[in-house]
Amino acid sequence: MNWSRAKTILICSFLMLNMILGFQLWSTNRSNQTEIALDTSSTIEELNQALKNKNIRLMDELPTDQLKLKVITVKYDDNMKPGEPKTLRTPINMSNLLGKGG
User: Fold this and answer.
1) How many C-beta atoms surround the C-beta of residue 40 within 10 A?
2) Residues 6+ apart with CB under 8 A from 96
3) How do residues 59-102 score in pLDDT, each as one tens digit?
4) Would you give the DSSP letter of residue 60?
């Protein structure tokens, strides 16, 4: 038996198997993410059921639209010590961050 050829065949077959399994993992992750993003109705139903089980009444309807949040960029400062307050150069307007942005 030619061990060099057998080794080559085994290496190639395991490489192909890893590629197939990697593709399956990638496609399963992508499909789960899109299902989560699109399926808000069942999430709301589950939440309403959990609230009902705990005898919690919600007076308002839960929002079904997805909010678009603005991007906040934060840079880490090595010179800053924990617990030490840091004043900002310009104050942050919270209404701009929490409002429905587009």
Assistant:
1) 14
2) 70
3) 887 777 767 777 878 887 788 788 888 777 887 777 766 665 54
4) S
* 52 vs 18, residue with greater confidence: 18
Kindly tell me the number of DSSP H helices and DSSP E strands found in the chain: 3, 0
Instruction: Tell how far CA 94 is from the center of its chain.
Output: 24
Q: Which amino acid is at 53?
A: N
Find out whether 13 and 5 touch, Cβ atoms under 8 Å.
no
Predicted confidence (pLDDT) per residue in 16-46, tens digit: 999 999 999 888 877 666 555 555 667 778 8
Q: How far apart are CA 51 and CA 101, in angstroms?
A: 29
Chain centre distance of CA 10: 37
